[in-house]
Amino acid sequence: MEKTFLMVKPDGVQRNLIGEIVKRFEAKGFKLAGAKLMVISDELAQNHYGEHKERPFFGELVDFITSGPVFAMVWEGQNVIQTARDMMGKTNPQEAASGTIRGDFGMTVGKNVIHGSDSPESAEREIGLFFGEDEIVSYTKQDSAWIY
Ligand code: ABT
Ligand code: MG
């Protein structure tokens, strides 16, 4: 089954949105496979956002993502990578549709509440960056017969 890496960013944690966000993915039918509250080190932030290293906003991005605790998660399910991106909405919350997480709770591109892997390659890379193998839980959920 496909897995993705999702993270409530420091603004989402401070604004009490962890429960709201977890609720949406649970209600959709995805399965939580790992989760932890953590403060991202400078090194991990630079690595995670490595693709944006040359962009003018890189410094601010690293400062923001390390500015307070984040809630890091691994979620599992059919097509979870793309479906989670759709549930998050566009990167710029001002362009994100109502009903999406960023559309409902975000205001600016610099503080857009949630991160989600954008491809199978990013998902594998980001899960490996944030979680040890012993932190990913493999289990059967009784509702799966009613979802698939
Ligand atoms: P992330 O989930 O944070 O990776 O966002 P997403 O994949 O939707 O968008 P990308 B393009 O990866 O943006 C990464 C972070 O950079 C911020 N950003 C982006 C800016 O501040 N200014 C910009 O012009 C662009 C393009 C938004 C993202 N996050 N945060 N926080
Ligand atoms: Mg991204």
From TrEMBL:
Gene Ontology annotations of biological process type: CTP biosynthetic process; GTP biosynthetic process; UTP biosynthetic process
Q: Which residues carry this modification: Phosphoserine?
A: S122
Q: Name one GO molecular function term.
A: ATP binding
SMART domains, sorted: NDK (SM00562)
Location in the cell: Cytoplasm
The protein's UniProt keywords, in alphabetical order, are: ATP-binding, Cytoplasm, Kinase, Magnesium, Metal-binding, Nucleotide metabolism, Nucleotide-binding, Phosphoprotein, Transferase
- Positions annotated to bind ATP: K9, F57, R85, T91, R102, N112
Span of domain Nucleoside diphosphate kinase-like: 1-138
Which SUPFAM superfamilies does the record match to this protein? Nucleoside diphosphate kinase, NDK
What enzyme category does the UniProt record give? transferase
Chief localisation class: cytoplasm
Where's the active site on this chain?
Answer: H115 (pros-phosphohistidine intermediate)
Required co-factor(s) are: Mg(2+)
Instruction: Spell out the subunit comment.
Output: Homotetramer.
Q: HAMAP family, per this entry?
A: NDP_kinase (MF_00451)
Summarize the protein's role: (Microbial infection) Catalyzes the phosphorylation of dZDP to dZTP, when the bacterium is infected by a phage that produces the substrate for the synthesis of dZTP (2- amino-2'-deoxyadenosine 5'-triphosphate), which is then used by the phage as a DNA polymerase substrate.
Specify the protein name. Answer: Nucleoside diphosphate kinase
Q: What is the protein's species of origin?
A: Virgibacillus indicus
